[in-house]
Design goal:
The complex is a heterotetramer, with two copies of chain A (345 residues) and two copies of chain B (328 residues).
Chain A (H helix, E strand, L loop, with lengths): L2 H5 L7 H26 L15 H7 L7 E3 L5 H7 L3 H8 L33 H15 L5 E6 L6 H13 L3 E7 L2 E2 L2 E2 H4 L5 H6 L5 E5 L3 H16 L5 E6 L17 H8 L3 H11 L5 H24 L31
Parallel strand pairs in A: 1-2, 2-3, 3-7, 6-7
Antiparallel strand pairs in A: 4-5
Chain B lengths: L2 E3 H15 L3 E5 L16 H5 L4 E3 L4 H13 L3 E6 L9 H8 L2 H4 L9 E6 L14 H5 L5 E3 L4 H13 L4 E6 L6 E3 L13 E4 L4 E5 L2 H15 L4 E5 L2 E3 L3 H11 L2 E8 L4 H12 L9 E5 L8 H7 L3 H13 L3
Parallel strand pairs in B: 2-3, 2-4, 4-5, 5-7, 6-7, 10-11, 10-13, 13-14
Antiparallel strand pairs in B: 1-8, 6-12, 9-11
Helix pairs in contact in B: 1-7, 3-4, 8-12, 9-10
The structure holds thiamine diphosphate (2 copies) and magnesium ion (2 copies).
One magnesium ion (MG) binds next to strand 4 of chain D.
């Protein structure tokens, strides 16, 4: 990742693609800032895990994916699902617990899913999306399509047995799954060195005979290229890939956590690597972005976010009784058949 | 009608459903030939369908359960085998937090059509980690369905239904039932979930029994019949959905209720039946509700100790007699 | 007497027991300072006792649960924290097959003195994977003890006892209780397991409540008192061992029973209480046994939906009124 | 492990030590043969997983341990616990489900434990003993002794998440635990290649920064030396070690399994490597064993086994009601306090 390379005009990405990435990163950051604001104002409840600082990872990743590819995400999933195609307004509606939310207000921030776009679920349980993505990849292979499945997860998740089992199965089955570890150096309050001694994830993944690399997670283009290669491999039937994207969480674990355990200097240092600022610099250097366009993007995003909030606020509040629905396909929550014929046919 | 074993009935269900729907596939440890699974239910299937549809997994219960969930979410219909119900605890997170809840958390977008087959129960000196009856753990979790067939006929019909349902099913077989035989028609059939089967009609006491204890209750019924006591044996077949109406109707007729299962008494399924009846049929009850369940201890190894805690016909018959004598 | 919070009470118990017995140590995710655990119960403890006795673990529930069992088997007395009860499912194998059964399987050789602290319950829009009440899963397993304190006083006294017992204890706190205050003496005390506390005396109906619902039942009692209805609120404090005598005594006096908890109704702890009473106090009951529990659905995110499924004083009071009117 | 080395008279092991190893391996094989006989005769119930062929691993390992060191074992644990000090007669008594069995007949073959000798349990659950051993090692460190904890487990167990979590914790905590993987090439019916693709366990363990090596599990001396080094490291506070011992199960998974999935040639090949035959050859070559002594050993063992069976047969059959005891220390199975004072003091 030498400096020169980074400054060179990419030949594999068009201006439109690069601007779309830039816009998406800005959108995610804006989304989370706005969510934080209304969370602190008491309009949004539950937990809010922000991915501010990490935007390059999901944006770079999903820029290499098709709509029919799958992703699984985590508690810190706003960036992942926005990158894969979620709309701001329906996300806000979900955070507001409204009927127009992706999950009709039943899921909230940690459980956003949009099956129509291959977003098969964020997850409140650390690491549990990983084997699910392997299963999606198995399903792809069995159905004979050329989709791929991507699993996003954090550094902390790599200490879970589920991570290990998932990598091992993917390696054995050689299914089209891409493991994208967003190593933001913290698992809640615990630094990476508490999750693994001298943790080298590339080595770990390679011990399963899975091709692996570590990329600069603060460089959206680097992430894109790494995932692009993995996608090619997966689509051509060459099995799984592991990618560690080194990144940083600019905030505490969730809104409300001051992050007292993150050294000031470390924070400073990483803020200097901000992926959005970096891409802005590059785009300007390459003549792809003027101040005016940049401002326009900011304005557009601001409008989109404000519209989103309005949309959420005015979305119908679910009937409380709605809590009882959607437990089963065929039965109500008390086990009474929902349709006569559906029970066994 | 022809008679086949519980094992054969299950295998037929798997074969028929795999033939009917190519999205159905099997996943589990040691399920392929020549071993063909610990209790031989899947023996021969990899030879028919190939190891692409009878997928052997390493010993990774968490991993393959998650993989089954992921496959189910994306258009496939996995049928997973846990060799022993005791090992489901390894995958409890995926079962409880994922399989059971994804549909709800996604606001009804997702379907999770996956069947988790497993077997439990004592009776073979398998000791504390290979003979549990922990259906209550699944029965308590919103989002899961639980089936426990007691006969070859029910096993086949319920398994076919389980595979066709779009909800996650915990399908619990019993190790001692595999060799039991029963009438199973040649023609295709399915059995709906949530419909109890009155395995024997009677008038003096309702006995709700599950899985292995249905057989014991039927034996007890024979013994008691000779003494002029007539019990009605109700097999719910699925613990959830539960056909409480049939149970309540029976209690209204008999005025007495005994529930029996192989699982430990404390917090078991019988408690739920007792609680529902103590609410819904309170005025019809002439006697205290009885449970004949295993004492709440782990399963001991030695056969005589294991026998001691197992449910047999005499334990059921004794309690019924007492109940009828008003001797409780 | 001084008043302190439930959180402070728990912390005092930990400090006192760690000072008293150097074999006691803490193990869990993010429990050391400055973070001091998700609900801040262990805040400050690593500064007092050092990170050799307040051991932070990576996110490895299975691993650290197994490690706690191994440490307990070899002379230490670990107090484990699961950040959310939902995450115990990750370690269910170690809890159910190991911690609970090693003593039995070893023919009584082993002792497994380990406390698994965790917290559960809805009320903070934490949604389906961070707000469950799955105490029934542990309550059903022979070999485990289960405590659910509802007050600061009980929290401290029960936790101290849990740490001193040589059996594995699942110790379940409630996220909304941490900030509640109650009288706690300065002097040391412990509370025995298996002794219910009658939190309020009454004559018309027995209300058995656990954890958070004890507070709701007490509020309901106030409301009902104004209407001339007197309920007795019994808090078992430990689900197992269960002080069924106190419950039965109460029912003999009031002739009516309602059980309430935050966990889903189907197969919950209330069913066990109902089943026991429907056997032991059948002749004393004047009305059907009632359960006021959460409907068996996952916990929804939106506050209004979450509120809808939560237990509050009016749900309890309404049901008591109906029960007394004979309107069930 | 070149041939020459193997033939050289070991300077680190005395004749007595070597003969003790030989005798123990013979004892284990005899024990299992006898157990099989009475199992097939219907006198012993439950499951019987034989370790015939693998004896060098536990014997080599436990020869490097002290009585106060800990082991955890598996469903295939007879060899492990006999090596650590269990007596034949009380083992048979357990298999017969008798009062004098190590677990009073409550555990059976898969759950033998003898806490007085650091045998903190065989285990019916694949991999679950591994984190338990790490906990024992943590306890050692906290108590400040120089004991070590050894975890025996199979190749199949390495596919479990629990294995991964345990290695990771041991590495982070640097506790005195030794992981001894008895890689017998099969996990029930599945060959090692089904548990891990191109599985290299040394590499896997090293990815946790745990010193690791693979040894010939058919060579008791090699196993001993490898464990000896690991024990030294552990006792001097240098943390965990991982050892893969390559070995083979000469029989099916359990008595009753014909092992149809094990190729004949493979079986033949491994039988030629029999560790007992090998050590016998060596002992004779070194002049440590005469035919006469060898016969004497066989006779003694035969007698010990026969005595053991007699002991088991005549041991008191537990009262059936005994099934209700030993659930808790302080309570009976219904929750009634066993002693007034014990509940909270
Ligand atoms: C199984 C499980 N254990 C613990 C938690 C609590 N928890 C939520 S997020 C988190 C840290 C996760 O760290 P990492 O995987 O690095 O993701 P990040 O938060 O950095 O995005 C923890 C411990 C959980 N949700 N699930
Ligand atoms: C968690 C769990 N899954 C599955 C099993 C069933 N089972 C018992 S032994 C075994 C194979 C174990 O293989 P390995 O670890 O290599 O040990 P080996 O039998 O070869 O000694 C299996 C699958 C089990 N006991 N526990
Ligand atoms: Mg992280
Ligand atoms: Mg093996």
């Amino acid at each position: 990742m030498d400096r020169k390379n980074q400054e060179e005009l990419p030949s594999d990405l068009t201006k439109e693609q690069l601007l779309a990435m830039y816009r998406k990163m800005q959108l995610i950051r804006g989304f989370e800032g706005t969510a934080k604001k209304y969370f602190e104002a008491g309009e949004i409840g539950g937990f809010l895990h922000l991915s501010v600082g990490q935007e390059a990872v999901p944006v770079g990743t999903c820029s290499a994916l098709r709509k029919d590819d799958y992703i699984t995400s985590t508690h810190r999933g706003h960036g992942d699902v926005l990158s894969k195609g979620c709309e701001v307004k329906r996300m806000f509606a979900e955070l507001y617990g409204r009927t127009d939310g992706y999950c009709k207000g039943k899921g909230g921030s940690m459980h956003i899913a949009d099956f129509s776009q291959g977003i098969i679920g964020a997850n409140g349980i650390v690491s549990s999306g990983i084997p699910i993505a392997v299963g999606a990849a198995l399903s792809i292979r069995m159905r004979g399509t050329d989709q791929v499945a991507v699993s996003f997860f954090g550094d902390g998740a790599t200490a879970e047995g589920s991570f290990h089992e998932a990598l091992n199965l993917a390696s054995l089955w050689q299914v089209p799954v891409i493991f994208v570890c967003q190593n933001n150096l913290y698992a809640l309050s615990q630094p990476w060195s508490h999750s693994a001694r001298d943790g080298n994830l590339v080595e770990r993944a390679q011990s399963y005979h899975i091709p692996a690399e570590s990329v600069d997670g603060m460089d959206v283009i680097a992430v894109y290229r790494s995932v692009e290669k993995a996608v090619d491999r997966a689509r051509s039937g060459d099995g799984p890939t592991f990618i560690e994207a080194r990144t940083y969480r600019f905030m505490g674990h969730y809104v409300g956590d001051p992050g007292a355990y993150m050294p000031e200097e470390e924070q400073e240092e990483w803020r200097k690597k901000d992926a959005i600022a970096k891409l802005r610099r590059q785009l300007k250097m390459w003549g792809y972005l003027t101040d005016k366009v940049d401002e326009q993007i900011a304005t557009d995003i601001e409008a989109e976010l404000q519209d989103g909030i309005e949309y959420a606020r005015s979305s119908v509040i679910p009937e409380p009784r709605e809590a009882l629905n959607d437990v089963y396909v065929h039965f109500d929550y008390l086990g009474r058949p929902l349709k006569e014929e559906s029970n066994h046919a | 009608m022809r008679e086949i074993t519980y094992r054969e009935a299950l295998k037929e269900a798997l074969i028929e459903e795999m033939k009917r729907d190519e999205r159905v596939f099997l996943l589990g440890e040691d399920i392929a030939d020549p071993f063909g699974s610990a209790y031989k239910v899947t023996l021969g299937l990899s030879s028919i369908f190939g190891t692409d549809r009878v997928i052997q997994t390493p010993i990774s219960e968490q991993g393959f359960t998650g993989a089954a969930v992921g496959a189910a979410l994306t258009g496939m219909r996995p049928v997973v085998e846990f060799m022993y119900i005791d090992f489901t605890t390894m995958a409890m997170e995926q079962l409880v937090n994922q399989a059971a809840k994804i549909r709800y958390m996604s606001g009804g977008q997702a379907k999770v059509p996956v069947v988790f087959r497993t077997q439990g129960g004592p009776g073979r000196s398998s000791a504390a980690q290979h003979a549990q009856s922990i259906e209550a753990l699944f029965h308590h979790i919103p989002g899961l369905l639980v089936a426990m067939p007691s006969s070859a006929y029910d096993a086949k019909g319920l398994l076919k239904t389980a595979i066709r349902l779009d909800d996650p099913v915990i399908f619990i077989e019993q190790k001692l039932l595999y060799n039991t035989k029963g009438e199973v028609p040649e023609e295709e059939y399915t059995i709906p979930f949530g419909v109890a089967d009155v395995k024997r009609n009677g008038t003096d006491c309702t006995v709700v029994a599950t899985s292995m204890t249905v057989l014991k209750a039927l034996k007890a019924a024979d013994i008691l019949a000779e003494e002029g006591i007539s019990i009605e044996v109700v097999d719910p077949r699925t613990l959830f959905p539960l056909d409480i109406e049939t149970i309540v109707e029976s209690v209204k007729k008999t005025s007495r209720l005994l529930i029996t299962h192989e699982a430990p008494e404390r917090g078991g399924f019988a408690a739920e039946v007792a609680a529902q009846v103590a609410n819904l049929a309170f005025d019809y009850l002439d006697a205290p509700i009885q449970r004949v369940c295993a004492p709440s201890v782990p399963i001991p190894f030695a056969r005589n100790m294991e026998d001691y805690i197992m449910i047999d016909e005499s334990k059921i018959a004794d309690r019924v007699r007492k109940l009828i004598r008003g001797d409780i």
